[in-house]
């Protein structure tokens, strides 16, 4: 197995962009369902308008140039190509920080945080809070896709990330992530507890209770925690369908999403609407629509709808399996949409910091980058 780290640059052939434009121009649209509202899925009227913007105003080359302004590399780990950003701080004593995105996200989630985290001096912060950033694309996602082997579970990704940091020469580092990244980041601490100085999660490190709780247990919770239990139950009842499909038939789903950019856009926008805060606001009113489309482009251009969904399949029965506590100090910042509860996270994680915020959604790095950046800085300040 080669351990070589190779410089990488995104250079999408114009033919691919022309093909995308042609597909968008000739999209076959369904008739709106009664009411054309979000309750039945992404509204046709709203999506048509976003697709028109994608066709006529969105500039992939500008997004490509922004991504290429950061040093990017690829390396092979455990038979899988791994793509990552590696942005070193100008501060010599900066702490390395491994940041992991989730689904349906990508490395694009962290773009607004790279400058403030690597160069706080230039962004009104304390240079003592600087980080060297390593931001990989999860196996099967974006330029780390597709996957060629089975078994890319959270445990295996944790092993791969520890190996990546070893190859980069980092012996002491922190980890950070949300969604899938919120599961992977603690796992790296379990794999390399002597190397990971701290784990920071947005949304919490999990697990969350998915079974009905007894009346006595519910009564012991705070009002905020009971609201989170209620929303977990609503999620399992109303939104679990995408997990059921992706964790059982990712290949079947992949045909439609890989062939239709409108289908790929709708599949991802459905989650951005459900998981941004407040929920009753269209996602492009909360997150810049160019950023939303750049995230979708990494799925579309790489044809990774199926291999990104495959993460759910690969984890299979491991979801909910108790994991050992690494002893690594762990922080969680919970925004208004999030549902993790501290008492259920503590057996598997050494929680030393837990912050509840009364606004913001699931996509913390995109929705609340300033709050998230400040919380990361504060948590790691005493762990350097």
Descriptive keywords:
single chain; alpha/beta; nine-stranded mixed beta sheet; 16 helices; 43% helix; 384 residues; 9 strands
Class computed from helices, strands and strand pairing: alpha/beta
Which descriptor suits the 3D outline? Answer: globular
- How many helical elements? 16
Radius of gyration, taken over Cα atoms and rounded to an integer in Å: 20 Å
Can you offer a commentary on this structure?
The radius of gyration is 20 Å and the shape is globular. It has a nine-stranded mixed beta sheet with strand order 1-2-3-5-4-6-7-8-9, sandwiched between helices. Helix 10 crosses helix 11 and helix 11 packs across helix 12. The protein contains 16 helices and nine strands. It is of the alpha/beta class. Helices cover about 45% and strands about 15% of the residues.
């Amino acid at each position: 197995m080669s351990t070589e780290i190779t410089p990488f640059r995104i250079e999408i052939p114009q033919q691919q962009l022309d093909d995308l434009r042609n597909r968008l121009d000739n999209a076959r649209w369904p008739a709106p369902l009664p009411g054309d509202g979000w309750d039945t899925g992404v509204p046709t009227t709203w999506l048509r308008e976003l697709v028109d913007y994608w066709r006529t105003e969105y500039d992939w080359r500008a997004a490509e140039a922004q991504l290429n302004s950061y040093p990017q590399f690829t390396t092979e780990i455990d038979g899988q190509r791994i793509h990552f950003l590696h942005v070193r701080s100008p501060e010599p004593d900066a702490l390395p920080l491994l940041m992991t995105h989730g689904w349906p996200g990508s490395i694009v989630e962290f773009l607004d945080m790279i400058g403030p985290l690597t160069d706080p001096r230039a962004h009104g912060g304390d240079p003592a809070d600087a980080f060297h950033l390593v931001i990989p694309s999860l196996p099967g996602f974006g330029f780390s896709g597709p996957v060629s082997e089975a078994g890319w579970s959270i445990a295996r990704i944790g092993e791969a990330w520890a190996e990546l940091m070893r190859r980069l020469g980092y012996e002491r580092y922190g980890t950070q992530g949300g969604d899938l990244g919120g599961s992977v980041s603690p796992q790296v601490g379990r794999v390399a507890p002597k190397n990971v100085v701290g784990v920071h999660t947005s949304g919490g490190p999990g697990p969350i209770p998915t079974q009905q709780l007894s009346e006595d247990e519910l009564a012991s919770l705070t009002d905020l925690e009971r609201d989170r239990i209620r929303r977990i139950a609503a999620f399992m009842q109303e939104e679990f369908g995408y997990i059921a499909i992706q964790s059982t038939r990712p290949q079947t789903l992949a045909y439609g999403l890989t062939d239709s950019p409108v289908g790929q856009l709708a599949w991802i926008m459905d989650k951005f609407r459900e998981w941004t805060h407040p929920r009753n606001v269209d996602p492009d009113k909360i997150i810049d629509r160019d950023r939303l489309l750049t995230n979708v482009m990494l799925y579309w251009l790489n044809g990774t709808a199926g291999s990104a969904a495959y993460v759910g399949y690969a984890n299979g029965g491991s979801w909910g399996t108790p994991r050992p506590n690494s002893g690594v100090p762990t922080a969680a910042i919970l925004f208004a949409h999030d549902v993790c509860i501290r008492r259920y996270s503590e057996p598997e994680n050494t929680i030393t910091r837990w912050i509840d915020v009364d606004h913001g959604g699931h996509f913390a790095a995109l929705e609340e980058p300033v709050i998230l950046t400040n919380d990361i800085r504060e948590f790691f300040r005493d762990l350097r």
